[in-house]
Design a protein that fits this description.
371 residues; alpha+beta; Hypothetical upf0131 protein ytfp; Nucleoside Triphosphate Pyrophosphohydrolase; 3 domains; 8-stranded mixed β-sheet; 5-stranded mixed β-sheet; 8 helices; globular
Length: 371
């Protein structure tokens, strides 16, 4: 099959990740009577009929059945369908195939730019496509669409990762920690991987090949709302699976506000959004408390933590959360010293809550002095 592409698949790196390898030939081409528009900023290119417009693109030639099946999943999961179109090339007109958006979808305003998109979005797009096609068997269209937000969130977490300072710890070269083999990942919402690794030893040389298993999560924003004038915090109570699986008799936990940092979202934006969604709280200022791995021996989870300065006039517990996310939350406004007493008694048994309470304790004089 010869395929005309007009958007992100014009990027050779993304096309290789989707098609399963470098595509043999890409011929510049134009599709008259269509424009390419942005959706959600400059994130998604959307093609639509437009009088007098011309969509610039490429024709990938002689795609085989396996490549077409992968492209069908990548595009078809979102309702895009193959249509026959006539394009112009330097060698003359050609009849080719093209993925067109579903009926009723609306384009954005303005012109979509491949250069702008590649600068900000190419690397995580390749990571997301690589994960999608790592599953065996591949998911159905419906399953892929349902998995896609978490796939993208994981891709952006990897893209966001940067090494912290290393003044005491070892400074590695890329070859000092290698994944030498991997099994098919498991999981649809979260992801579980079993891999073979080798790493440099402190005594020199390389370790044996070690089988290791990991939970592939996402970055999360964690916020403890704090009213420095009233000296009050707000804790979230909800039922949690982890304690239940550990056979804890009471899986209802007291925690800060928290949520996944979505694809293309900053941790700060996620923190503010979650405070509104979970607790109905408007934060006037975020204090960065630290960013860290939660359990680096077996998990990629990485928390951006904040203290959110706000007004907490409430005196009684109240309900919160979003129904469409199946959130069943109870919010507890309380005096800071009462929260510390719960930490001392063990009733607060979640690491981020303990960490942020102790962070406030250390910085309380400054926070209250600036209030």
């Amino acid at each position: 099959m010869d395929l005309f592409v007009y958007g992100t698949l014009r990027s050779q790196k993304l096309m290789a990740a989707v098609a399963g390898g470098t595509v043999r030939c890409a011929v510049p081409a134009e599709l008259s009577g269509y424009g390419v528009f942005p959706v959600d900023g400059n994130v998604v290119p959307f093609i639509a009929p437009q009088s007098g417009a011309t969509a610039q693109g490429l024709v990938y030639e002689d795609l085989d059945d396996q490549q077409i099946a992968r492209l069908d999943l990548y595009e078809g999961a979102f309702g895009y369908r193959v249509a026959t179109v006539d394009v112009a090339t330097a060698a003359g007109p050609r009849t080719v195939q093209c993925y067109l958006p579903p009926d009723g979808a609306a384009p954005g305003v303005g012109a979509w730019s491949l250069d702008v998109w590649e600068a900000d979005h190419l690397a995580p797009a390749v990571l997301a496509a690589t994960e999608l096609f790592s599953y065996d068997p591949l998911p159905s269209f419906a399953a892929a669409r349902g998995m896609w937000p978490m796939i993208e969130a994981r891709a952006w977490s990897k893209h966001r990762a940067k090494a912290a300072p290393a003044t005491r710890r070892f400074v590695p070269e890329p070859a000092d920690f290698q994944i030498t083999g991997a099994r098919t990942p498991q999981g649809r919402f979260f992801r579980f991987e079993s891999v073979d690794v080798r790493h440099r030893k402190f005594t020199g040389g390389q370790s044996d090949v070690l089988v290791r298993e990991g939970f592939i999560g996402t970055d999360a924003a964690v916020v403890l709302p704090y009213d420095p004038v009233r000296d009050k915090v707000l804790l979230v109570e909800q039922a949690r699976l982890g304690p239940r699986l550990r056979h804890d008799a009471n899986p209802w936990m007291l925690e800060p506000v928290a949520g996944i940092v979505d694809a293309r979202e900053t941790p700060q934006a996620a923190a503010l959004r979650e405070c509104k969604e979970e607790a109905g709280v408007v934060v006037t200022r975020l204090e960065e408390a630290g960013a860290f791995y939660v359990s680096p021996g077996a998990s990629t989870d990485y928390f951006y933590t904040y203290v959110g300065l706000c007004d907490l006039p409430q005196t009684e517990a109240y309900l919160g959360g979003l129904d469409d996310e199946a959130e069943d939350l109870r919010l507890h406004p309380m005096a800071f010293d009462d929260a510390l007493a719960l930490a001392d008694s063990g009733e607060i048994a979640t690491g981020p809550a303990l960490f942020l309470l102790y962070w406030i304790l250390r910085h309380k004089a400054r926070l209250q002095g600036a209030a």
